[in-house]
Amino acid sequence: MSTLVKAQSVTKYFGSKLALSNVSFEINTGPPVALVGPNGAGKTTLFSLLCGYTFPSSGELKIMHQQPGNAHLFGKLSALPQDAQLDPGFSIIHQLRFYAQLQGFGKSQAKQESDRVLELVGLSDAAYQRPNDLSHGMRKRAIIAQALIGCPQIVLLDEATAGLDPVHAREVRELISTLSNEATFILSSHDLSELERLCGQILHLDQGKLTEHNALSQSTSQQHFFTLRLAQKYEDVEKKLFALAGVRNVHNSQAKEYVIEYEKSAEAFDIQLLKYCHQQGWQYQQLVNGNTLENQIFHKEH
Amino acid sequence: MIFNWGYSLMQLHAKRSLDIALFELVRLFLTKRGLFAVAAFSICWLIVLRYAIGEAVNLLNSPNIAGFIDQVFGAIGLSKLLTWPQAELAVYWLIAVYSFPSFCLFLCADQTVGDRQRGTLRFLSLRATRAEIILGRFIGQLLILIVLLSITLAATLAMFTYREPSLFFAGLSHSLILLGYLVVAVMPFIALMSLINTFSRSARLAFIVAILFFVGGKIIVGLLAWQLPALEVLNYIFPGYQLADMAAQNAGLMLAVGLPLIQTMILLIFAERIFARSSL
User: Fold this and answer.
1) pLDDT 10s digits, B236-273
2) Fewest C-beta atoms under 10 Å: which of A3, A146, B226, B242?
3) Touching check for B96 and chain A: CB below 8 Å?
4) Cα B213 to Cα B205: distance, rounded to the nearest angstrom
5) Architecture of domain A224-301 in CATH?
6) Do A102 and B33 touch (CB under 8 A)?
């Protein structure tokens, strides 16, 4: 496992406004990394710094031991920047071929590569259309396609599935999941369940500060939580669950959803819990082993 | 600054710059908008060729007013042009040497600013250095102007060859020399727009800033030179300073070629340095 990104005390000001404050982290090759936080937390700023679009006010940021934006990173780091649009004057395929050529592909290879990435995002039929002739979702998929040209080692996707319909959002998620063996993805999204499904590591930014930096699996396995989502509202669920043996705490995280903290010694608590639901006649929708990312973040921010 | 510029230069990849330049050429000739621009340009030049150059040549060749023309051209320092056997080329030269640099400001107003506003530069900057982008876009605009200049020169060549076929060969070599001078003359204007594009927020604003630079700048330098005549030297910062001498064929090689090349290099270095430090 090698270090792909190393940030040391990175601070970024826009004028007098502090966007990132003393952020330090490391990202190694491996499963996708989630970058989460509320609007204005500094996620897009961090993405811009990683891509070399803007520069830190202080601190040091290295991508594969290079300064962001360095020519050695061309073809190794790719990105879906938020709000960036393709050139409206040219067809999608023309632009993708151009980008592939800039990455060092020959003319015929660039054509093949562009066809390949368009097929990956399901846009082969729209290859010769201009960006303005496409829907918002199709444009976004075209931009995701440009991020997949070649064999990037780091792919940064800022709000990759925002604005996509559920079918295409799912396809993009599956694409990321499939390609995550070949590249390390860094994803930002407000869809926390999406990030939970895809990512193995989380960077939580809040008001420009990095408040958490650990593996999702680690954080859940050490804390002994279950998140139970019921099909409908039932009476005194919180009180009844709390009365169960081994339960330390229960709270109603949101409508029909309960986070149950249990004793470390309580073995096979999930089986016991499901049996109890059955006895009570409670229909459940989902039982999550751990505290959901959404609940963890909500708990931190409030 | 010199160290950073040297480092940017070391990272410069000629093929990437050329790819960016050729993409700009394609933009003009293979996109609808570009073709409309070429069509509008061609119609304007057809009118110039037919009415301005065609009619002026008739006047220049008229024996009745030859003495008057001699006096007028002599008074404004253009008498050398009257010695050219290809009168069409002389009139073309007079129009082109002033109109192309001004046209440049308009044509090259959007080199990077539109792409920066739209975010397209973010895709490019992951594949090319900022120096390559600036240089590529500059070369692209230069190639476009070379093509447009060549078209207008070819049309002028056709005009005087039609009038007098024996003028073709001498006229062709003369046209190629003029093309070289015109290409060098427009270079600092393109580079100036490259520089203004690095901090402007729109192509329209870039054009306005360029006009203000020339008008306001000349007034300021004029006032400074009035106070201290040695400051007259500041006029050398303005692209096109040599155009009047060039038009009259009185500019030496250093003034006609050296000055615009030096201005171009300095403007591009400033453009690259500002662009390298700006956020995309």
Assistant:
1) 999 999 999 988 888 888 999 999 999 999 999 999 99
2) B226
3) no
4) 12
5) 2-Layer Sandwich (3.30)
6) no
